[in-house]
Amino acid sequence: MSFKNSIMISPDHPRYESLMLRARMVEAYKAGILADSGLIAHGRGEAFDYLIGEKTTETARKATHAGAAALSLAEYPVISVNGNTAALVPHEIVALADKLNAKLEINLFYRTPTRVNLIEKALRYAGAKEVLGTEREEPAYINGLKGPRSRASKEGIYQADVVLVPLEDGDRAEALMAGGKKVVTIDLNPLSRTAKTASITIIDNLVRALPNLLSEVEKLKKMDRNQLQKMLKDFDNEKNLQNSLEIVARAYTGEMEL
Amino acid sequence: MSFKNSIMISPDHPRYESLMLRARMVEAYKAGILADSGLIAHGRGEAFDYLIGEKTTETARKATHAGAAALSLAEYPVISVNGNTAALVPHEIVALADKLNAKLEINLFYRTPTRVNLIEKALRYAGAKEVLGTEREEPAYINGLKGPRSRASKEGIYQADVVLVPLEDGDRAEALMAGGKKVVTIDLNPLSRTAKTASITIIDNLVRALPNLLSEVEKLKKMDRNQLQKMLKDFDNEKNLQNSLEIVARAYTGEMEL
Q1: What is the count of residue pairs from A and B with beta carbons less than 8 Å apart?
Q2: Does any domain span residue A162?
Q3: Which of A67, A120, A135, B81 is the most exposed place for a label (fewest CB within 10 A)?
Q4: What residues form DSSP beta bridges with A256?
Q5: Given pLDDT bands bounded at 50, 70 and 90, which one contains residue A89?
């Protein structure tokens, strides 16, 4: 119903973008790509996105810039893909993996063989030549995690030095950091454990952050390793995250004056 | 999947309450009580609830107090019920209608006969003797609204002087206010159009607000109309809403100091 209804929304509706994304997520849920909690997670994202004005903030740009540098410097970059990521930005994720010569690894909180296969299909349909983290693999395991969440691909996250994890859960982000990996995350909640744990936290919507990451990585191709390393050294994630929080706080106190 | 998973969550998990509610919403969605967008709306609620500390704030208490007074003073109070309300607090809604001698009216954004019937069943199962807004009625219509959202029950909202509308959409809240009705809303987003439009805005989670409303209404039975009217006159919704916003803003700027 809501899908039909949002399809009927005219493009000049103030909530058009948001309603079309919502419709896409409902389709993905019905197709089995999203877990039950995937739609709920999307709703949480909508709320936080609303609070940053549904646009890429200056702090998000800085973090995207640093994230692109970290990924460009990586010896063995891996991009972790969950259901929401596969539903929202499959082509952009595949294009970024190509640009970085990074591995793509499926990594689900509520892992089922069916969902893994559907997400692999979605990624291959978007042009992925290699997809890790499938059921065909003999998995490796990350220290400090229990259950299916400890699973990692031997050819992927298990040996990665830099991992891009959009929408990662806190426990896993902490375990990856504890494993000595650099973690670049994209998360709309600046208060989430993942946001606070990661090496580089991009507070932005995946549908804006991925195209920005792609163009940043392209730009950085002109820079040498020293320049990239300096860029990374100059970026303070905690300070940047604090600035994101202040943007939201201002949105709250400012909004009522309109 | 997420339902099974959250069922396995132990009661001392910090997110236990939130995860159990999430599981209940997933069940309601699968039962057909929630529209596709219902789970997403729940997720938005989770985010805003998180920002007020997942507890009833002092400003929410004040609004609940005033809302209980408005409903107690009403000549013809009506409680509007949508899918999320029926899924989260069916028994509390029915108990409040009994206490206030108020009508219960089903009022859906994505209205389908099937959902209307499922929600009527849920309310009757929770003890409702009368349910308005069903398919059996010849509906009336509210001025200033187009399409199914203009629908109202002749015996219900159409002639109500005070309407309790948990989780109402902005257009409809404005049309009800324009129609000279007093609108009491419960909404977790202090920036929503409904929150800003309503006569009395309770920024709280339905699962906390409804029990609070019930006990407030019980307490106010001891008061006479003059005392209740004074309570209402002393309540400033815009100021109270501003205070709710400041609580969230503080949550944002404060959180990082932890």
Answers
A1: 115
A2: yes
A3: A135
A4: none
A5: very high
B143: buried, middle or exposed (CB in 10 Å: 19+, 13-18, 0-12)?
exposed
Question: Is A35 among the domain residues?
Answer: no
| Alpha helix positions (H), A101-192 | 113-125, 170-178
Q: How many CB atoms lie within 10 A of CB B235?
A: 18
| Domain contains B113 | yes
Q: pLDDT class for A9, splitting at 50, 70, 90?
A: low
Q: Would the pLDDT of A7 be above 60?
A: no
Of B254, B87, B81, B224, whose CA–CA distance to B157 is shortest? Answer: B81
Average pLDDT over residues A134-143: 91
Nearest to A110 among B2, B50, B241 (CB): B2
Q: What is the domain range of residue B179?
A: 58-252
DSSP for residue B184 = E
Evaluated on CA atoms A71, A76, A80, A81, the torsion sign reads positive
Best residue in A5, A9, A27, A39 for a mutation probing chain B (most B CBs within 10 Å): A39
Other Cβ atoms less than 10 A from the Cβ of B27: the count is: 14
Candidates A28, A26, A33, A36; CA nearest to A5 is: A26
Q: Which stretches of chain A are DSSP H helices?
A: 2-7, 16-31, 36-51, 58-73, 83-88, 90-100, 113-125, 170-178, 193-197, 206-220, 225-234, 237-255
Mean pLDDT score, B46-57: 88
Q: Say how many domains are in chain B.
A: 1
> Nearest by CB to B48, which of A39, A47, A241?
A47
Is residue B43 within 8 Å of A46, Cβ to Cβ? yes
Indicate which CATH number applies to the domain containing B67.
3.40.50.12640
- Shortest Cα–Cα distance, A218 to chain B (Å): 33
- Is-contact B120 B131, C-beta < 8 A? yes
Q: Could you tell me the pTM of the whole model?
A: 0.83
- ipTM for the complex shown: 0.77
Question: Coil, strand or helix: which one is B90?
Answer: helix
Q: Note whether residue B97 is domain-resident.
A: yes
Which residues numbered 113-172 in A keep a CB inside 8 Å of some CB on B?
Answer: none
Does residue B22 sit at the A interface (CB-CB below 8 Å)?
Answer: yes
Report the pLDDT averaged over residues A221-239.
95
Decide the pairing of beta strands B140-141 and B151-152. Answer: antiparallel
